[in-house]
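Tutorial, part two.
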Amino acid sequence: MRVVENMVCHMGLSEGDLRVIVEMSNDAILVFSEEGKVEYANRTAFEFFGREGLLGSSVFELLGDGVREAFSALRGKGDKVCQELCLEGIGKVAYACFFLMDDGKPRRFCAYLTDVTSRREFEERLRASERRYRELFEKVQEGVFISTVEGRFLDCNQAFLEMLGYETKEELLEIFIPTDLYVNPEDRKFLQRQIQQEGYIKDWEVEFKRKDGSRITVLHTAHAVRDESGRIVGYEGMSVDITQRKRLEEELKASNEFLKGIIESSPYGIIATDMKGNILIFNRAAEELLGYRAEEVIGKMHISELYPPGMAKEVMKKLRSEDYGGKGRFSGELKVLNRYGEEIPIHLSAALVYRDGKEVASLGIFTDLRPRLEMEKRLQETQLQLLQSEKLRSLGEMAAGVAHEINNPLGGILLYASLLLEELSPEDQKRKDVERIVSEATRCKEIVKSLLEFARQSSPDKELVNVNSAINEGLLFLENQATFHNIRIVKELDPGLPPVYGNVGQLKQVFMNIMLNAVDAMHGEGTLTIRTSLSQDVREVIISFTDTGVGIPKEILPRIFDPFFTTKEVGKGTGLGLSVSYGIVKEHGGRIEVESEVGKGSTFRVILPAAEGY
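Running the prediction step on this input gives:
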């Protein structure tokens, strides 16, 4: 009570007011003597220390001997000393303020104790969190930064320094971001506009400058830092150096472009599929070979649609066999279908593509065999022509010798048979026999003449020849013959046909020989169609003779140009007409082609080089 009375006296408050204030305080209040004996404790103090017998106890036991130094600093009334105390006995931390209440004899002291245990724990947790944040900030491998709107860095981690080539943070904080960091200062303005609109920017690819001036490409992510009013005052973010990755991407892209260029420029069709048969690659050569565009087939067409029925499965079966070049490989000739359903002969080199030992795709290289087959056909024809030429040359040399040897005796036979015929009267029974001798000798003379023409070695004089006129002149001579009376002649002659350079007489002989053979094949009745035209490359004149005759059997077709070969009856042909024609056309730098089908007729095609300049 004495303590309260003293407090009432000193503070000018009523006892009741003071008790209410002291008892309602959230702080523990202790009043104690100079010896440290507790004379008063409020309700909060009992709760703070968690014990009943506070009055009379020693404040030094409650608060520790360390408070003695605080007391020694209190010299006069009203002096105050505050300090933080760790009360291990009760496991609490208190913020204690001591002041001298009465400097008389004896002196009295008062202590206000605020429980700061929870706050201290929170502060420790906060400091620990800050330490962890700082450790994360410094140890993260990506560059982390904080900057102002004006363009200065406030903070950054070590990774950001290393990425930009700065040794100390102080160096970096001195730079002006728009001009010293960005390769293109306009990029900084773009970032600010983006963050102003969206509040952030994410994975933005931009170029930065390092301290030494070299450039790096980064993925930049940043967000706005705002004040209490919502105004943007800075930026926080992260930058990831992707220069190496970018370089690898460019190299990979260049490599892919190079490989794509090889595939696209390949003269052979290249087609790749997944293991379901869906087309993944279809190059330009494949487009030209099959008539499809790549966009029509990639991801839209199954590979089996490019083969005849069942062929795709057969190819895959062979690819998985050991018998066709080893497992996963196949090479062979087969046929594919173009977009019009036409079969095209090709050579296929195919392989399976493996990943981790599993089939993931198939690749095929398609080589068009048509040029090769056409070349082989022409080569075969050339070989036949060379063989024919050699035959003709040998036979010509022989024929020339034979003709000269026979010609003189034949002349004598004809001379004496004619004289004998003149001496016989018309009624003489021997006259018919002599006439037969004259007729047969005359035929032999014609054969010898043909042989001489066949064997002629010198080239005839040549000039510009109008092919249409040569045909018409030959027809004018032949149409009056009896064998042509029931033959319908159809002429389809190109009026714009250029001339050829040759001997008009020999060319007429060729045309007439072919027309006579056509009439013989029709047995005096049918249609002979004669066409002239110019080749697509405008380099050759084409003269075709199509009859509706019996046709030529395949087995004798290769022999029709052989000398003395004939299918006519004995006495009705020498077998030299086509041989002579062949030689003449060859001498003119041309060729003869034949198409025939038994029962339907034949077409003989004379192909001559057009004269230059026309």
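Residues 370-423 form the longest helix (54 residues). In part three we will examine how such features are distributed along the chain.
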